[in-house]
Specification:
With 233 residues, this protein is α+β, with helices and mostly antiparallel strands. Helices cover 26% and strands 23% of the residues.
């Protein structure tokens, strides 16, 4: 399978692999909530945090959602989102590789990006999770704008959407997403209603369409007429 390469990839991954495993130590000043809860809030470098958690949770996580740095070129208070492209890849790759190890065999991961690094992220995710385990790419509407308006001096269109890549740990064991509606056998339902002496037949129909009190003719997207009628029943 094709993989994504950059000049320092081998050395970058070796450095990440050699990052020491550290023990989690409670800081009571930062603790929050019920001390008896199994939930954890880990503060620190995420590579070190993942390595510290892996011995306890490897292969046990059903669902993961992450919102990694998009590499948008901005600088935030707690992290730099303006990394040289290969540096961003060298940070993302080992972390995604570790995250995969947390998933159950029927587990699933959702990873959100914008379009700055999305396509490179797709390639490294194909390499780490397996292209055959890719399920979907979702477009998420983040804001509303009227029309395809420009973004100003950067000569780009305004960004209205972000994207979520979805991968299964193992597509063959992943169960489908829950349906919006549960399926019910119609004939079983009818038998049950008849046994309870409940009517399953249609009990009302429209006998009169009412009277038109207003009618307008509009045009669809290609100029064809659409007749809209307002009625009073």
């Amino acid at each position: 399978m094709p993989s994504l390469h950059w000049l320092t990839k081998e050395n970058d991954l070796k450095t990440a692999a050699n990052t020491a495993y550290k023990l989690l130590v409670e800081d009571e000043k930062l603790s929050y909530g019920d001390p008896e809860s199994e939930n954890l809030l880990v503060q620190g470098d995420n590579l070190e945090a993942l390595k510290a958690l892996l011995p306890f949770y490897a292969g046990q996580v059903k669902c993961i959602y992450i919102d990694p740095p998009y590499n948008t070129g901005s600088a935030f208070e707690h992290y730099d989102d303006n990394l040289e492209h290969t540096k961003w890849l060298s940070i993302m790759y080992p972390r995604l590789d570790l995250i995969r190890q947390f998933l159950q065999e029927d587990g699933i991961i959702f990873i959100q990006f914008d379009d700055e690094e999305l396509h490179y992220a797709k390639v490294i995710c194909d390499e780490i999770f397996g292209r055959n385990n890719f399920i979907n790419q979702i477009a998420v509407e983040m804001k509303l704008t009227a029309g395809a308006s420009g973004g100003g001096e950067d000569k780009r269109l305004k960004k209205n959407v972000e994207f979520i890549l979805i991968y299964a740990k193992n597509y063959s064991t992943f169960k489908k997403f829950n349906d919006v509606y549960e399926e019910t056998d119609l004939f079983s339902l009818i038998d049950e209603m008849e046994a309870n002496e409940s009517s399953w037949k249609y009990t009302s129909i429209i006998l009169d369409k009412g009277k038109y009190i207003e009618e307008r003719t509009l045009q669809d997207g290609i100029g064809e007429p659409i007749i809209v009628k307002n009625i009073k029943v």
